[in-house]
Design a protein that fits this description.
Elements: H1 2-23, E1 34-40, E2 45-51, E3 83-85, E4 87-89, H2 94-101, E5 113-115, H3 123-132, E6 137-140, E7 160-174, H4 187-194, H5 204-209, H6 216-226, E8 235-239, H7 244-257, E9 280-283, H8 286-295, E10 299-304, E11 317-318, E12 321-322, E13 328-329, H9 333-343, E14 366-374, H10 380-399, H11 402-405, H12 413-423, E15 427-428, E16 431-432
Parallel strand pairs: 3-5, 4-6, 8-9, 8-10
Antiparallel strand pairs: 1-2, 6-14, 7-10, 7-11, 7-14, 12-13, 15-16
Helix pairs in contact: 4-7, 10-12
């Protein structure tokens, strides 16, 4: 009897198990695994749960750091005390520096950080001032390296963190007035203008480059000479002090125009010697050079693209230049970005030039500019303000659209990461300042 009951109980349990299996829908398995994925936006850290283990494009499994985001909780926005930072250097950087150190968009760390005025005295001044200790941050379109010939006498390169600060482009600007927009100039023609070989806008080579007299522009250029118009005489405007824009310009002429001048940033280049143009006018910085173009009909000069966007500079016309593949381009931010993409992510103080990069629609006169900082700081509050401002600028100011609005191109993600690596080498009493909370 007991044996029979035990057999019946076993049969009932087996049947119950079979019914349970049969009640599970076909193809069902154990509960699907989910993963929490994160993305940092301009307003918050966004999270979402997804089925499986793969996160969508733009999301990561690890929660991103708020550092450099400009959001509540960003440690870049907190410094240990009041700090006033002295700054000087590249005029190429001036619009961005103005936007990030003064006014409503400035970095202030809750009112703890302020900045000196920015004289924009040029890249050479930025390098010498950081070496002689008269500024907390020096700005230069070229880093300080023996390779580039930009390391001030007596300075040791390893003593400085060199941080890619902005990405921009220079243009060959001119002033010929109505009917002369988008003049095409080859790199060789530009070099010949600065060397004094070409002295008139009606030069046959320039006319030919612009379609000859069968085109409206070519005919108008030729007509300047035919009617002996005063603006036919080219006035060359150049930087009369050490200049990073001059360095990039000469680097471009060397790479694209085949000139033999070695870039140095010295006035009119050539290791301090002048190009051979004789009808010339010197300007102290980008702002002054832009103004001189505005005021001088028939002039030509090289100037950072941002200065074309400044009210009052509308008279500056921008020459079309050729990319490495021979296409004629008018400057634009996407084409400047393409130059950085073509150059790749391995930007360092010894590998910084991005002029005349290969590819289509690549602006040939693009450049990074750099912030220079002493690695060993003597004040915790000042040193922390220095590195946290620069981290905020190379992340938040790039990603929020601030740099774009000033006429620059946001730093590529890999270059932003390199900037942070450089800032992590700056210390006070052996402590990495950027990591302080």
């Amino acid at each position: 009897m007991n044996k029979t009951l035990r057999s019946l109980a076993a049969a009932s349990l087996a049947l119950a198990g079979l019914l349970t299996v049969l009640s599970v829908p076909a193809g069902a398995t154990a509960k699907a695994k989910t993963t929490t994925c994160y993305k940092l936006t301009s307003t918050a850290i966004v999270s979402k749960k997804v089925k499986g283990t793969a996160c969508p494009t733009g999301y990561t499994k690890s929660k991103p750091s708020l550092q450099g985001s400009g959001l509540t909780g960003d440690t870049d926005l907190v410094v240990p005390g009041q700090a006033s930072l002295a700054i000087n250097g590249s005029s190429f950087d001036a619009p961005e520096i103005g936007a990030t150190t003064s006014g409503s968009t400035a970095y202030s760390a809750g009112g703890s950080v302020s900045f000196s005025s920015y004289p924009a005295a040029g890249s050479g001044t930025g390098r010498t001032d950081i070496v002689n200790g008269s500024v907390n941050i020096g700005f230069s379109d070229q880093p300080m390296t023996p390779t580039a010939g930009t390391l001030p006498s007596g300075a040791t390169e390893s003593n400085y963190a060199q941080v890619p600060f902005i990405l921009g482009g220079a243009v060959v600007g001119y002033n010929l007035g109505t009917g002369f927009d988008n003049v095409k100039l080859t790199a060789q023609e530009i070099a010949n203008i600065f060397n004094g070989t070409i002295t008139q806008w009606s030069d046959p080579t320039i006319v030919a480059t612009n379609g000859g007299t069968s085109t409206a522009l070519g005919k108008a250029l030729a007509g300047l000479g035919t009617y002996n118009e005063p603006k036919d005489t080219i006035k060359v405007i150049y930087r009369n002090a050490s200049s990073g824009t001059t360095y990039a310009f000469t680097n471009y002429l060397q790479a694209a125009g085949g000139t033999t001048l070695t870039p140095s940033g010295n006035p009119m280049e050539g290791t301090g010697a002048k190009w051979n143009a004789s009808n010339i006018l010197g300007a102290a910085n980008n702002s002054a050079l832009a103004q001189d173009i505005v005021n001088t009909v028939g002039s030509i000069g090289y100037v950072e693209y941002s200065y074309l966007l400044i009210p009052g500079n509308a008279k500056i016309q921008s020459a079309e230049l050729q990319d490495k593949n021979g296409q004629w381009l008018q400057v634009s931010q996407p084409e400047i970005a393409a130059a950085a993409a073509a150059a790749g992510s391995s930007v360092t103080p010894d590998n910084f030039s991005i002029v005349d990069e290969p590819g289509n629609n690549v602006w040939p006169l693009a450049t990074y500019s750099w912030a220079l900082v002493n690695k060993t700081q003597t004040s915790e509050a000042t040193g922390e303000a220095v590195v946290k401002y620069l981290d905020w600028e190379t992340h938040y100011a790039q990603n929020s659209g601030l740099a774009l609005g000033e006429g620059y191109v946001p730093l590529p993600a890999a270059v932003q990461a390199y900037a942070r690596q450089q800032l992590e080498t700056v210390t006070y009493n052996g402590t990495v300042l950027l990591n302080q909370k």
